[in-house]
């Protein structure tokens, strides 16, 4: 494995004890604590209820990009550790029309992501879902959440951020709520023009995302990913077949993707067909499809990566630096 | 040699090739000078592909080109058989077909076949349902799976830069996340790093078009597999032997397109292959796959499959390989053909009809059954010699130079491909 991190930080954490004692981790955890406090306050203020997410289930988010779930034996049944609780979020809308989790996720990422500085096997996301919401509703909450958290952290612990080398002026646009919007097509065209070989049918790749993020001084949404690049639950635009009503939120200055979200597909027959299109056997999803058949509300929502958020706030190089118990892809750690 | 049989297949001839190799291309040399030979009569009833004669022209401009290039008369040994197969470099226009999870196809014979395919520098396809049926190294289970044994045998023997391993996935495999498991397994890293891994989306097989895989299992196995497969007591009333059925999976053109896109997005370092059963809309299906970026499309004609299939399917269902190839016409990408391949003549016919390479399934199993160490190598050597003899006789010196004009059908079939609308009415 390549030991040099693209941004110059060491690629792998020190032994756990040493890592836990480091002043840098302590600073990061204080920022994380403030960020979580602010996130909960903001979402509760917007009428969301916090639920605690499930950890295992018969299926989880089928994911993509080669990441996979871990299997556990559940009374003789092969269960999965959650890679994302998206399916439960949708089902919960029947009782909780605005809900959020601070959800732990386990994704066995491909080993080549160990060097991106942006992938951990264990991480958390702030998972939000809005019944009858549109993409724009989800984006408004995501932007509001990022703005509010950033504002709070700069107000609560400015000295920690400054000591970590952060400059308050760099956060002016985020704190003022200034966000840009572009489409996936635009992003691809921009990357191709810059000589980056971006696949137009897929997610923006890591290197491409970094290029776009470095180019920008303010956060921006990327809308309209192509069908086939995301999970079956991202809703296809009825007006534009092949285009999804989804988005990412990208942080500026090279910190990359913070949020993935979408309007969700709620039509039963469409969900089953979309499962087949992603090579899935609908039988695995029996409990979820039962909910969908009985009438799951249409919705929109997103997940904001907590460690990515803290990395963006602290300006640290790699996600392992903002995780107390980091597990890098392909690296066996306690 | 075990008790493996292949009724309806020229098993004796294949076993002879597995023992004697290239000598079997010719009449018995001890009869030379004492017997007179003409066309053999009483050969087994040929299918449509075998009925086509291979017809060299008199005038051969491509031989002239080769003569100029070589500055001497070209010979059959000058035929270049190296091929690009689905993104891999192969020393011959041949590959080892998948054997599936049947007992005959998933034991030691398959490991021997894999090792010999590697030495030959040709790709190997590993069949569906290997992991749901035979398991995989997971969660501390140190048992070597049948699939890993085959991959290790292949890697140990493969020459640098040639061949490749292709792993199929069908519906039940998707439940077991076969591709996901393999893509991140360190055992597969050498294949990924050398660009020699492909995943093949299996939508069907020649022996039972429209059905999923079927195997016979005993009572204990049936109980163990019942959660992942349909198991039916249709073979005897007590269920001593039971039929295990996989599902064929549901496809539309959009489902196929999206699954291929999904494969490319999720496994960018693996090649993307698709295998179809000989469906009436095969031309539309193949074009859909190529336009969605498939590196290879495999068509398994009705003569194909090692498998356990209902008799009515073996006798009555699916397009013959020749009809599949003619419907597809000039391929838009790499086209692989399988179904009853075991000697050079049938292979040349398929190549002339547009195939880039042909797959050996049953013939390979019979050959390794005859001689586990070198049977497949000798069989393939004999096929390679025939290919060189036939292609040079056509005045050509490379596989891609073959053309439908090289064939003639006595019963008046057009030698040029039909590329009409599929009989389903499904047009692109």
From TrEMBL, chain A:
Region (Disordered): 1-20
Keywords for the protein's UniProt record, in alphabetical order: Aminoacyl-tRNA synthetase, ATP-binding, Ligase, Nucleotide-binding, Protein biosynthesis
E.C. numbers: 6.1.1.22
Aminoacyl-transfer RNA synthetases class-II family profile domain: residues covered: 98-334
InterPro entries per the UniProt record, alphabetical: Aa-tRNA-synt_II (IPR004364), aa-tRNA-synth_II (IPR006195), aa-tRNA-synth_II/BPL/LPL (IPR045864)
Biological process per Gene Ontology, one example term: asparaginyl-tRNA aminoacylation
Enzyme class: ligase
Domain of life per record: Bacteria
Name by which UniProt lists this protein: Asparagine ligase
Source organism per UniProt: Streptomyces vietnamensis
Phylogenetic classification of the source organism: Bacteria, Bacillati, Actinomycetota, Actinomycetes, Kitasatosporales
UniProtKB/TrEMBL annotation, chain B:
Superkingdom of origin organism: Bacteria
InterPro entries attached to this UniProt entry: Aldolase_TIM, Glu_synthdom
Glutamate synthase domain sequence ranges: 198-368
Disordered: annotated segments: 408-428
One GO molecular-function entry: glutamate synthase activity
Listed GO biological process terms: glutamate biosynthetic process
PANTHER family for this protein: ARCHAEAL-TYPE GLUTAMATE SYNTHASE [NADPH]
Membership in a protein family: Belongs to the glutamate synthase family.
Listed name of the protein: Glutamate synthase
């Amino acid at each position: 494995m390549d030991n040099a991190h693209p941004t110059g930080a060491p690629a792998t954490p020190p032994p756990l004890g040493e890592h836990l004692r480091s002043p840098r981790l302590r600073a990061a955890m204080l920022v994380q604590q403030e960020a979580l406090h602010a996130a909960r306050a903001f979402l509760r203020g917007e009428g969301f209820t916090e639920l605690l997410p499930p950890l295992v289930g018969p299926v989880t988010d089928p994911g993509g990009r080669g990441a996979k779930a871990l299997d556990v034996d559940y009374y003789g049944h092969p269960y999965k550790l959650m890679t994302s609780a998206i399916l439960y979020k949708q089902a919960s809308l029947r009782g909780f029309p605005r809900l959020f989790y601070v959800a732990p996720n386990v994704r066995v990422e491909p080993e080549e992501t160990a060097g991106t500085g942006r992938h951990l096997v264990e991480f958390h996301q702030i998972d939000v879902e809005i019944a009858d919401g549109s993409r724009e509703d989800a984006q408004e909450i995501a932007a509001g959440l990022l703005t509010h958290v950033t504002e709070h952290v700069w107000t609560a612990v400015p000295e920690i951020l400054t000591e970590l080398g952060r400059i308050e002026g760099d956060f002016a646009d985020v704190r003022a709520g200034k966000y840009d919007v572009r489409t996936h097509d635009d992003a691809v065209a921009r990357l191709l023009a810059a000589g980056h070989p971006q696949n137009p049918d897929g997610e923006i790749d890591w290197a491409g995302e970094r290029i776009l993020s470095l180019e920008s001084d303010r956060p921006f949404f990327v809308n309209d990913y192509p069908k086939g690049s995301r999970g079956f639950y991202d809703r296809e635009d009825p007006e534009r077949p092949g285009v999804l009503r989804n988005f990412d939120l990208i942080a500026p200055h090279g910190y990359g993707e913070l949020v993935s979200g979408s309007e969700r597909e709620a039509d039963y027959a469409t969900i089953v067909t979309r499962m087949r299109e992603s090579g899935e056997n609908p039988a695995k999803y029996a409990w979820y499809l039962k909910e969908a058949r009985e009438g799951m509300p249409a919705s929109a929502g997103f997940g904001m990566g907590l460690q990515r958020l803290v990395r963006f706030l602290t300006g640290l190089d790699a996600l392992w630096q903002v995780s107390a118990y980091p597990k890098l892809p392909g690296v066996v750690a306690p | 040699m075990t008790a493996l049989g292949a009724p309806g297949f020229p098993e004796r001839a294949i076993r002879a090739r597995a023992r004697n190799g290239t000598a079997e291309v010719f009449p018995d040399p001890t009869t030379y000078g004492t017997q007179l030979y003409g066309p053999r009569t009483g050969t087994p009833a040929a299918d449509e592909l075998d009925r086509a004669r291979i017809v060299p022209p008199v005038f051969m401009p491509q031989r002239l080109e080769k003569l100029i290039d070589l500055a001497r008369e070209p010979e059959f040994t000058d035929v270049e058989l190296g091929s690009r197969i689905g993104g891999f470099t192969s020393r011959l226009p041949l590959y080892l077909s998948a054997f599936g999870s049947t007992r005959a196809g998933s034991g030691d014979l398959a490991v021997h076949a894999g090792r010999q395919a590697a030495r030959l520098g040709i790709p190997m396809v590993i069949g569906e349902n290997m992991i749901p049926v035979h398991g995989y190294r997971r969660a501390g289970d140190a048992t070597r799976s049948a699939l890993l044994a085959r991959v290790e045998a292949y890697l140990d023997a493969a020459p640098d830069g040639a061949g490749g391993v292709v792993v199929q996935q069908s519906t039940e495999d998707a439940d077991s996340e076969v591709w996901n498991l393999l893509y991140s397994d360190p055992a597969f890293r050498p294949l990924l790093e050398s660009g020699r891994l492909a995943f093949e989306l299996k939508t069907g097989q020649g022996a039972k078009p429209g059905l999923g895989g079927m195997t016979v299992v005993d009572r204990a196995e049936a109980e163990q597999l019942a959660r992942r497969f349909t198991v039916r007591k249709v073979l005897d009333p007590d269920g001593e032997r039971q039929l295990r059925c996989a599902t064929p999976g549901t496809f539309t053109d959009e489902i196929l397109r999206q699954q291929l896109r999904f494969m490319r997005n999720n496994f960018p370092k693996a090649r993307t292959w698709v295998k179809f059963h000989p469906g009436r809309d095969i031309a539309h299906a193949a074009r859909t796959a190529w336009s969605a970026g498939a590196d290879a499309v495999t068509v398994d004609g009705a003569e194909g499959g090692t498998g356990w299939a209902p008799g009515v399917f073996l006798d009555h269902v699916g397009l013959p390989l020749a009809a599949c190839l003619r419907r597809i016409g000039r391929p838009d990408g790499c086209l692989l053909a399988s179904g009853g391949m075991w000697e050079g003549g049938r292979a040349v016919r398929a190549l002339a009809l547009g195939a880039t390479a042909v797959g050996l399934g049953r013939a390979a199993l019979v050959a390794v059954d005859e001689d586990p160490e070198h049977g497949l190598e000798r069989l393939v050597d004999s096929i390679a010699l025939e290919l060189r003899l036939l292609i040079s006789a056509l005045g050509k010196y490379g596989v891609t130079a073959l053309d439908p004009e090289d064939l003639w059908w006595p019963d008046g079939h057009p030698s040029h491909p039909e590329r009409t609308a599929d009989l389903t009415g499904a047009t692109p």
